[in-house]
């Protein structure tokens, strides 16, 4: 077998986010094929053969690619609506519009969401898609194809809702699937698209939406299905006080106890938000290895509260970051969540000791990899891991006067991405996507957002 072609990156600061938080003020990273071959101080080793490209990254910080652990791509078409609502009121306002989605809309919304994240340094994306109106085509396939076009690594969390209003749920009956349809379609999606191999570009998780939109039976059987297929489990949990009240009224217990009773705690589970957790809830997550997708901007936008991230980390709970859907985080970017995670948590009880800049970077990289069950493949710059890496430009007006590159990245303005690689393949150059036409995507998202508004208005 021929040796893999190498890409040599030199003269940049490097934050490896390895177990010791090793950093280099000026160092090198060598990529060979889809893997990282070496990382270290100073120039790359001499005598390397098959060097296809040499990048002088002076003025840059190299980090692992960002890992997004919670998102709803379809919401790209309903941004900026219901702007002054809490979660339940916001959902009730938007469900009727979302129920009118079709395959073209879902495809274009996915392209927009993916493009926005990828050009901001995301190398592993996820989409929790749970709106499957009847007769709307192959929505999961459309989303997965959009991720392949963009070039990011991708997890589709195949969502579902079967608890409509007539069963005490929040969504209208016409927006939900039947229990059997949801389970059968989820299983088919896993069998068709999930790749469990090292370096997989597409994975699928089983992801009923939330306690207030899913029957207990679907939660239980969804967990059994995921474990029988060997895939991960994802859902929303403990997002708001209203959800907590809902769980007490309907199930006679809080969300974490409800999840445990339905098989939804475990090291193969990660949950979005986890804002309203008491000490015993946090202990249950730590004991079972259940992961958390922290979404600080969305939690602030919907006035949900502040997740106890410092307490979760101290207890040993894996925590990653999530954009969440862009109807509750209109920016659609993940690198801004590094800063927001730090700022929001410092407004909580731990104040200035809540999170450091380096912990925030870890949440967005290694923490995300842990939560997705892929810490052995991605999330840190270490030899043998996949070559998912971002070069952030820090020598322009926005950052040049900040000496500490990690502080510049996390606390400063959103840093431009000079280059982003996924498995050694470049997907961003000088802030532009290489495999997707951004202007064409922008035009299509505008047209589809208008079409959705028009159809929903006629309903
Ligand atoms: Zn969400």
Care to give the gist of this entry?
By secondary structure, the chain is α/β, with parallel strands linked by helices.
Largest sheet descriptor: 9 strands, mixed
Low-confidence stretches: none
**Average pLDDT taken over every residue:** 96
Intertermini distance: 60 Å
Helix content: 25-40%
Secondary-structure map:
Blueprint: E1 6-15, E2 23-32, E3 35-41, E4 51-56, E5 60-64, E6 66-67, H1 87-98, H2 103-118, E7 122-129, H3 139-150, E8 153-160, H4 179-193, E9 202-208, H5 216-229, E10 233-237, H6 241-251, H7 255-261, E11 269-273, H8 279-288, E12 291-294, H9 296-301, H10 309-315, E13 319-321, H11 335-346, H12 357-371, E14 389-393, H13 405-411, E15 417-422, E16 425-429, E17 432-433, H14 438-458
Parallel strand pairs: 1-4, 1-5, 6-7, 7-8, 8-9, 10-11, 11-12, 12-13
Antiparallel strand pairs: 1-2, 2-3, 5-14, 14-15, 15-16, 16-17
Helix pairs in contact: 2-3, 2-14, 4-5, 11-12, 12-13
Bound molecules: zinc ion.
């Amino acid at each position: 077998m021929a040796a893999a072609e190498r890409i040599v990156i030199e003269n940049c600061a490097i934050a490896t986010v390895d177990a010791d938080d090793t950093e280099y003020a000026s160092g090198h990273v060598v990529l060979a094929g889809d893997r990282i071959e070496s990382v270290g101080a100073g120039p790359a080793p001499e005598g390397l053969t098959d060097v296809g490209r040499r990048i002088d990254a002076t003025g840059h910080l190299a980090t692992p690619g960002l890992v997004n652990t919670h998102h709803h791509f379809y919401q790209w078409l309903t941004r900026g609506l219901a702007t002054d609502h809490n979660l339940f009121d916001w959902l009730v306002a938007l469900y009727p519009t979302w129920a009118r989605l079709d395959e073209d809309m879902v495809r274009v919304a996915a392209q927009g969401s993916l493009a926005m994240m990828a050009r901001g340094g995301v190398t592993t994306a996820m989409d929790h898609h749970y709106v499957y109106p009847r007769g709307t085509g192959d929505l999961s396939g459309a989303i997965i194809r959009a991720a392949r076009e963009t070039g990011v690594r991708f997890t589709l969390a195949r969502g579902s809702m079967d608890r409509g209003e007539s069963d005490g749920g929040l969504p209208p009956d016409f927006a939900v699937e039947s229990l059997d349809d949801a389970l059968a379609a989820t299983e088919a999606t896993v069998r068709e698209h999930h790749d469990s191999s090292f370096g997989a570009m597409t994975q699928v998780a089983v992801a009923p939406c939330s306690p207030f939109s899913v029957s207990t039976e679907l939660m239980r059987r969804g967990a059994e299905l995921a474990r029988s297929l060997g895939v991960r489990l994802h859902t929303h949990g403990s997002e708001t006080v209203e959800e907590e009240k809902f769980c007490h009224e309907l199930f006679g217990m809080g969300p974490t106890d409800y999840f445990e009773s339905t098989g939804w705690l475990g090291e193969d589970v990660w949950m979005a938000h986890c804002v309203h957790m008491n000490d015993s809830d946090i202990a249950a997550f730590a004991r079972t290895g259940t992961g958390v997708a922290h979404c600080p901007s969305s939690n602030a936008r919907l006035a949900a509260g502040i997740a106890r991230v410092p307490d979760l980390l101290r207890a040993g709970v894996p925590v990653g970051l999530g954009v969440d859907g862009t109807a509750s985080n209109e920016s659609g970017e993940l690198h801004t969540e590094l800063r927001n995670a730090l700022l929001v948590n410092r407004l909580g009880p731990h104040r200035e000791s809540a999170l450091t800049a380096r912990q925030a970077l870890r949440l967005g990289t290694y923490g995300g990899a842990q939560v997705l069950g892929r810490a052995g493949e991605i999330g840190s710059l270490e030899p043998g891991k996949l070559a998912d890496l971002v070069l952030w430009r820090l020598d322009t007006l926005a950052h040049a006067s900040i000496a500490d590159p990690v502080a510049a990245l996390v606390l400063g303005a959103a840093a431009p991405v000079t280059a982003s690689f996924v498995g050694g393949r470049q997907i961003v150059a000088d802030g532009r996507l290489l495999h997707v036409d951004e202007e064409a995507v922008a035009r299509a998202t505008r047209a589809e957002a208008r079409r959705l508004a028009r159809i929903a208005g006629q309903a």
